[in-house]
Design brief:
Distance between the termini: 144 Å
CATH superfamily of the largest domain: Histidine kinase-like ATPase, C-terminal domain
CATH class of the largest domain: Alpha Beta
Number of strands: 16
Number of domains: 4
CATH topology of the largest domain: Heat Shock Protein 90
Largest sheet: 8 strands, mixed
Strand content: 15-25%
CATH architecture of the largest domain: 2-Layer Sandwich
Length: 675
């Protein structure tokens, strides 16, 4: 049959839409995204994974900005953080939304049919009956399992986060761009900083816009200003520019400088409460010169709390200095950017002033090694791409001195020790601060502390990690500090029980470049040999200090045990000695002038009962106490006394006519000579 006259049944005919003719692809359209739009779509990069993590990261970014602001003007930081819980009704009132009751219950995700509810209630009744029977039989009753959570996100929880500090403040005209333009900031450059990417509070603003639609409020005042800058703004995601609602100067009613930032976001306090409090506590450890006041305000009074982390010292680390690039740490793109931005004219000046550890003589040697087409007076702007590649290749192959690390600002042993003592109250603590070392041309310093015992410290290893004086709370298992403490330290060789003792391990790493792994600033990888070696050495130095303290403590404990044993046998020893003396006195009562006067006097006193068993017991007890006191004084002298005695100590001189009876040098020696 011909193709045009098909007599196939409808079932045999091919279905429409299944034509084998290929579809014509749509023409691709070139689009461009702004940085704000990119981070809004990939907010997990900045630590905004879920509502709970968003609340934690918002607090973290605001606190760190406040510390940077205060430290930049050498002001002892005072940071106040308030998280206020906002109910659904209050939130709807804030945005002008009228709440209404449900009309179609089946439309909602938490709807439960009558049959499903009957089935659930019957199951709960059976479980209660089983638990009642088990309780009657004396069996252990299991806790009732909570009902399964409904699918979906459920009702959102909203919080107003406020952070106030006493820092530098912000110039009035710069506030909109500092908060409303992603990838803009004041922390760019090669130096040790807490922040790096110009995100921080901007991501909190983006999350606020995504979850609540509400703008952010900023109040700021600088030293010497007679006004307070107030700005209310949000961000234009697609154009990456600030959308200003209010920007004005208000009357300054009190002497205050700093910034106060207020943002309303969706969050989850319940799941991230411990993380936020843990972060604040660790921040108090690494910055004991700062005062933190943390408040959680809830409509339910039993949930509200106020925690004050008091300042322990007024000694602040120096402000980190901006430094120049080390030749071994630069790439080809960075060399081109430095050439574009430099104010130097020729290649000799460029090498000397744009890089560290290149002297004039060294620069001349490098230029001579580059080839005959390079001359010291050659204009730096005239270099070709091939010549720049040659410079880069030489930088990778040549030998340079390591940077000295004077641009870094570690917390310092003093502050680290005070922070540990203030927050953990350990029984003993040791700290160590290493010298500057280098990886990939970047200097870094490792500080460590190890504590034993303490308040709210679990048995085993409790690891606290810091990078550029920022606590790291996530991805602990893969971090170089955790792996070093667990696998590379033989704790038993330092008289420390890894499983039973309460061990606190604190490691702080500062550098111009922290080699974080992953998208967020969560952990430092274990693949950099220089850092892993420095971390291990720092922890070992702390353990060596602790070992000497532990050994001395064990010796003191053994001495106390010896004292208890001696005291326990004093009555028996005194009784035996008195019986010997009494027998000798009776045997030689008739023999006069056979012994020296001292011996005769001693035996005479025994005969006349001037010396009794109780006398000997008392003298032996005094002797044991005197020996224990002298050994304790020697121990304190060798180990050092951490604080002044609470009471005055008076040491009497020894009297030559002491009543102390030296039995070993008199009677017993006399008996040996007699035999």
């Amino acid at each position: 049959m011909e193709a045009g006259g098909s007599s196939e049944s409808p079932a045999d005919q091919p279905k429409r839409g299944k034509s084998k003719t290929p579809r014509k692809a749509k023409d691709s359209v070139l689009k461009q995204k702004s940085p704000a739009e990119f981070f809004a779509e990939n907010k997990n990069i900045a630590g905004f994974d879920n509502p709970g993590k968003c609340l934690y990261t918002t607090v973290r970014e605001l606190v760190e900005n406040s510390l940077d602001s205060a430290e930049s003007i050498s002001e002892l930081p005072v940071v106040e953080v308030t998280i206020e819980e906002i109910g659904k009704v209050k939130f709807n009132t804030m945005i002008g939304l009228v709440d209404r009751e449900r009309v179609d219950e089946e439309l909602y995700d938490d709807y439960e049919t009558a049959k499903a509810r009957e089935k659930r209630l019957a199951k709960e009744a059976r479980n209660q009956e089983i638990q009642a029977k088990n309780a009657a039989l004396g069996k252990k009753v299991k806790e009732p399992t909570p009902a399964k959570a409904m699918k979906g996100r459920g009702e959102a929880s909203f919080y107003r986060v406020t952070c106030k500090d006493n820092g530098r403040g912000m110039p009035h005209d710069d506030i909109p761009n500092m908060f409303g333009r992603v990838l803009s900031g004041t922390k760019y450059g090669l130096r040790q900083t807490r922040g790096k990417f110009g995100l921080g509070a901007k991501m909190a603003l983006i999350w606020s816009k995504m979850s609540t639609g509400l703008p952010i409020d900023i109040s700021s005042s600088m030293r010497g200003q007679n006004y307070v800058s107030f700005c209310r703004l949000d961000i234009d995601i697609h154009r990456n520019i600030p959308h200003i609602h209010i920007h004005e100067k208000l009357e300054k009613k009190e002497e205050w400088h700093g910034a106060e930032i207020q943002v309303v976001i969706e969050g989850n306090w319940t799941t991230y409460r411990s993380k936020i409090l843990h972060y604040m506590r660790q921040m108090a450890v690494i910055t004991p010169y700062a005062q933190f006041i943390f408040k959680f305000v809830s409509d339910t009074s039993d949930k509200s709390m106020t925690i004050k982390f008091a300042r322990r010292t007024d000694v602040m680390p120096p402000v980190p200095l901006e430094t120049k690039h080390h030749p071994s740490s630069v790439d080809l793109l960075l060399i081109k950017r430095l050439i574009t931005e430099t104010s130097k004219q020729n290649i000799l000046q460029f090498l000397q002033h744009e890089f560290v550890n290149i002297s004039k003589a060294h620069a001349e040697r490098l230029i001579g090694e580059m080839g005959p087409e390079f001359q010291p007076k050659m204009l730096i702007k005239s270099l070709t791409d091939q010549q720049i590649v040659r410079i880069h290749q030489l930088f990778r192959q040549a030998k340079f001195e390591d940077p000295i690390g004077d641009c870094l600002s570690p917390a310092g042993e003093y502050n680290l020790r005070l922070g540990i003592i203030k927050e953990l109250h350990p029984d003993m603590v040791a700290t160590y601060s290493g010298s500057a070392q280098v990886f990939e041309g970047h200097p870094f310093i490792v500080e460590a502390g190890v504590s034993l015992g303490g308040k709210d410290v679990k048995q085993g290893l409790n690891i606290f990690r810091f990078a550029n004086r920022i606590p790291l709370l996530f991805e602990q298992g893969a971090d170089v500090v955790t792996r070093t403490a667990l696998k590379r330290i033989n704790w038993s060789s330092y008289k420390i029980n890894q499983m039973q003792d309460k061990i606190g391990v604190f490691v702080s790493i500062v550098s111009t470049k922290i080699p974080f792994k992953g998208t967020g600033k969560e952990y430092i990888g274990d693949d950099i040999t220089e850092i892993a070696t420095a971390v291990k050495y720092a922890i070992q130095q702390c353990c060596i200090q602790l070992k000497s303290k532990i050994v001395k403590k064990m010796q003191a404990r053994e001495q106390q045990e010896r004292k208890r044993n001696l005291s326990k046998y004093i009555p028996n020893a005194a009784g035996a000695v008195y019986d010997v003396l009494k027998e000798m006195a009776q045997s030689h009562a008739l023999k006069k002038k056979r012994y020296e006067d001292e011996d005769a006097t001693l035996l005479g006193k025994v005969s006349t009962r001037l010396i009794t068993k109780d006398t000997l017991t008392e003298k032996l007890s005094q002797h044991v106490e005197q020996v224990d006191y002298e050994m304790a004084l020697e121990f304190a002298t060798q180990s050092g006394v951490s604080e002044e005695p609470r009471e005055a100590i008076y040491i009497h001189s020894l009297d030559t006519k002491s009543d102390f009876i030296d039995f070993s040098n008199s009677i017993f020696c006399f008996r040996l000579t007699r035999q």
